[in-house]
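Entry details:
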Amino acid sequence: MTYFDNAYYNKKVLVTGDTGFKGSWLALWLISLGAKVAGYSDKVPTQPSNFEILDLKKNIQHFKGDIRDKEKLAKVIDEFKPEIVFHLAAQAIVSESFLNPSLTFETNIMGMVNLLDCIRQRDWIDAAVLITSDKAYRNDEWCWGYREIDALGGHDPYSGSKSCADLVAQSYFDSFFKESDTRIAITRAGNVIGGGDWASNRIVPDCIRAWTNDKTVQVRNPNATRPWQHVLEPLSGYLCLGSNLLMKNKEINGEAFNFGPDSDVNQTVAELLDAMSRKWIKAKWSSASNQKLKGHEATLLKLSYDKALFFLDWRAVLKFNETVDFTIDWYKTYHEDTEILYDFSVQQIEKYCELANKRDLRWAQK
C-alpha cells in the first residue's frame, strides 16, 4: 500500500499497546504500508485476542514489558531504535477503572510520563503520536462536538487518568519538545467498534458473545448516544498525523487533534443494536434498566474534527451502515474460518482505503 505519501515505507515504527484492539489493527496497517514494526505490551489483554488471531508476532518484533517500567521501555527503544512512536498502551476499560483506580492512574499517567521521558533523551526519534481519548474532555453533555480548546476533566477514574495524561503530553511539549527536532502531537478519539474487539463490558463484543450462544443481550442504557466509528477511522487519523509529523509539518507540532465520525453516525445504542442484529442471525437484545454502571455515565459525547479537516485534510470515511457492515462481516468470518482472518483483515483495510480514495481524501491518493 502506498498511502499517506508513502511516509511509512521502510520506517522503523514502535507501537506501544500492540496487543490491544486498536494497537493490533494499527500494527497490521503499518505492516501493509511496508513499515518495520515493533510492539511493546505487558500482556495479551483478552481471550480471544486480535493480536493472537492475526498471529502478528510473525510479522513484527514484539517486546513484552509494562509501560510503567521505564528502564525496560528505555532498553527496548535503544534496541529497536524507532523513528516514530505511536503510544496506545493504556488501561482502556471504564468499568475496570472503578475496580482498580490506582492501576488505571498509574498506567495511563505514568505510562505517558515514562514514554515522553525516554523520547526527550533520544533526539534521533523523529516523531511521536500520543493517543489519549475523547473522554479526556470534561463532559457537560453538550449537543455539539467538543473542540481541542475545550476544557479537559473526568467524572470517573478512566476519564480523569486520560485528561491527566493529555496534560502531561502538553507540558512535556512546552518544556522539552518545542525547540526539539522531535515532533509530537496528541490525538483524541473514542467509541471505536470493529472486528477483533473482545474486551469485556463493551457493547459489540458483549453482543457477539451472547448472540453466538443464542442468548439475549441485556443493555443498560439503550438511549445513550455515541459517535460510533470503525476502528480504521481514528487509525487513519493517527497515520495521517504521523506522516505529517515525519514530513516536518510545523503547523501541527505540539497540537491536539480530534478524530471522530460525521454527525449522522452519532446514533443511540438501540440504533446500533438494531443495525447489527439485522446482519446477525438470531440476534436479540432487551433493555436492562436495573443494571447501573458505578459512577457517572455519559449519555452524550461527540467530537468536532474541524481542526483535523483544516490542517490534515482528514475526515471520516464510513457511513453508519458501512461501519456496521465492516464490523459484523469480520465476526462472521471469525466464526466461519479463522485461518483466513489475516488476509480478510488486510482486505478490509484495502477496502477502507479504496473508499477513502473514491471520497477524495488526500491521504488515500496513490
The chain has a mean pLDDT of 93. The chain has twelve helices and 13 strands. The first helix runs from residue 21 to 32. The chain has one domain: 4-364.
